Amino acid sequence: MTSDPNTLVDALKAAGEPTRLRILALLRRGDLAVGELVQILDQSQPRLSHHLKTLTNGGLVERLPEGSWVFYRARTKDWAGRVLNALFAELDLTAAPFAQDATALQNVRRERAVSAESYFSNIAETWDRLRALHYPETDIEAAILHQIGDRRFERLVDLGTGTGRMLALLAPHAQDAEGLDLSHHMLTVARANLNRADVRNARVRQGDVTDTPFENNSADLVIVHQVLHYLEQPEDVIAEAARILKPGGQLLVVDFAPHDLEFLRESQGHRRLGIREDDMSAWADAAGLAVQAPTRFDPPASLDQGLSVLIWTATRPANQQEVAA
User: Fold this and answer.
1) Quick one: pLDDT band at residue 123, thresholds 50, 70, 90?
2) Which of 111, 238, 243, 302 has its CA 20 to 30 A from that of 20?
3) For the domain that residue 188 is a member of, what is the CATH number?
4) For 200-215, what is each residue's pLDDT tens digit?
5) What's the rounded Cα separation, in Å, for the pair 75 and 8?
6) Cα–Cα distance between 23 and 32 in angstroms, integer?
7) In DSSP terms, which residues pair with 223 in a beta bridge?
8) How many angstroms from the chain centroid is the CA of residue 195?
């Protein structure tokens, strides 16, 4: 609840304009950049930038810089989320102009999908070569789901979300899910994949997995999938995951076991040739997490060389004092 009536007045003034109302309706369907809103609403960029600034200042929209792009997101939590829910409950979104805007949004999403396919066509050879080196992904994903079981999570965070695959896989187990990645190209792929899978409760944003924008004690499940081997200091990600986990929250880490495939340093940008079990234990202990022995998936016996995959689960003790926000 907002204690300042002026804050609420400013928010209502921001929403109380036809174009800004259309913008809010679109952003409630997913994050959009200014250029995408230009396509959908057929208005000039300066005009829409002004409207977005007003909505941001009014506390109804969040601004998410991503390289040379800036994405905007309708707020869904606290007083702003409640105000928007109440406002749009009174509107018929199947009528004009909202219906036409929704159709134009689908065109923009199709363009995203084309961009994602173009990106992967450029890296397909090396990407497929890596995937062929380890245990089938479908079986690894089944093991991840087995680890989750039938639990439901209030908030899931995917650090290093990449293509958004873990978000799509685990979103049914979460009320709210968010992925973070440094690569704008990968986020383009992730958005297209989430749209294609019609995942409504998961979003992505650009950011550093060792210094995230997420609040202390804000997630009850954090996943780090095939990320640590790209980093000079993987322990920083484990520490950051511990910071944002609630007491009793769970961390799930998936990565390669130690190996000697040196070509992956040059062809795939790997910094580390796998993650040692004793290293993971030390990082988890330093972060105040209780880690279990990993589940191991060895590569198919038919391969002359291959990669083993490890899945770790770690828990932040339920009796651990919450980090002050």
Assistant:
1) low
2) 111
3) 3.40.50.150
4) 999 999 999 999 999 9
5) 14
6) 9
7) 158, 252
8) 13
